[in-house]
Design brief:
The chain is mainly beta. It is about 5% helix and about 40% strand. The protein folds into 2 domains: about 1-20 and about 265-329, Sandwich (Immunoglobulin-like), CATH 2.60.40.3080; about 30-250, Immunoglobulin-like (Sandwich), CATH 2.60.40.
């Protein structure tokens, strides 16, 4: 009976704030639910196509290599949509210094600033370092070179797999990326046919950024999925460490205002295993537990210490009326 009451209370609380929730499929760093695009976005680096409004922002905030980063040095987030023949990624990256010295990108390409896409089209997991069970695409900041290793254990360019463009506003860069998806049977140098994508398809996925301001080797490697430091840099070897990407329908649910689909508020890491969660913007907040009880409130905060919280689900309401769910593991 207690379990029933707990879930009923959480349902009631969700319904109370339901009109405030975003129209996007709920996504986080563990599972991204990418909506189908009625019309493919134009790859021009502007990110102003209406279809992007259907997709949720997710942060790139987990430092795999290097020291913790400051917001002016690096911050990032992304969203994904799809059509039957492409994945599309919109990424916003703040990087105070761009470095691209290994060009063309066939030597030490991970030591330059680059956006890195890990993709396992059938989420079969396993080793992919020198095979095409999965890809680790390193996208150079020149928007031309896309590098990964092949079956001959040598680096190659896969520039025909990915088209990208970016625009700049100060130190903020907006990337738009179009990705052809290939299966395990890909053979380098042959005429390979990209896969047709369908609703319900599940892939292995992670998005990361190599940040290097001045050193010969990269200073930071930051990814979207939380990974323990012991395995955080294993993505180029094994797809076991990838998160999950689900392709879902793209229609906005009935009764939700499409003008309110831009998600401005994010919590990370989510699920949270550490003692602190972070907000992507300063806000007044109220936090409710699964019973619908107010756990805490705070004014003008960008982080919350949850070390004393019990494990479970919580709702965070901001002073702007936004509501987002997070899980304490």
């Amino acid at each position: 009976m207690k379990i029933y009451t707990k879930h009923l209370s959480f349902l009631i609380l969700t319904l109370m704030f339901g009109h405030l929730l975003y129209a996007q499929p709920e996504s986080n760093t563990e599972v991204y639910k990418a909506p189908k695009a009625a019309t493919a976005p134009v790859i021009d680096g502007n990110g102003n196509d209406a279809v992007w409004n259907d997709a949720a922002w997710v942060p790139i905030s987990n430092v795999y290599i290097g020291n913790p980063v400051t917001a002016d040095d690096f911050s990032g987030r992304y969203k994904i949509v799809w059509t039957s023949d492409r994945l599309y990624i919109l990424a916003e990256i703040t990087d105070d210094i761009l470095r691209d010295v290994n060009s063309p990108a066939l030597t030490n390409f991970w030591d330059d600033d680059c956006l890195e896409l890990f993709l396992d089209e059938n989420r079969s997991k396993g080793n992919h370092q020198f095979n095409y069970n999965a890809f680790a695409y390193h996208m150079a900041i020149n928007n031309l070179d896309v590098a990964d290793y092949g079956t001959d254990q040598q680096p190659h360019l896969y520039n025909d797999h990915i088209t990208s463009a970016k625009t700049q506003s100060g130190t903020k860069y907006t990337w738009e990326v179009s990705v052809k998806v290939f299966g395990d049977n890909f053979v380098y140098g042959q005429n390979n046919t990209p896969l047709t994508l369908n609703e319900g398809k599940i892939m292995g996925f992670n998005l990361a950024y190599c940040d290097n301001d001045k050193a010969q080797t990269r200073e930071n490697f930051i990814g979207s999925r939380y990974l323990d430091k012991s395995i955080a840099n294993n993505g180029y070897i094994t797809a076991d460490v990838f998160a999950e990407l689900q392709l879902v329908a793209g229609s906005i649910p009935t009764g939700i205002d499409a003008s309110n689909t831009q998600e401005a508020f994010m919590i990370y890491p989510n699920p949270a295993e550490e003692g602190i969660i972070y907000l992507n913007q300063t806000s007044n907040i109220e936090i409710y537990n699964a019973l619908g009880n107010l756990v805490s409130s705070a004014k003008a905060v960008s982080s919350v210490d949850i070390s004393s919280y019990s494990k479970g689900s919580y709702l965070v309401k901001t002073d702007k009326g936004e509501v987002l769910r997070f899980v304490k593991k």
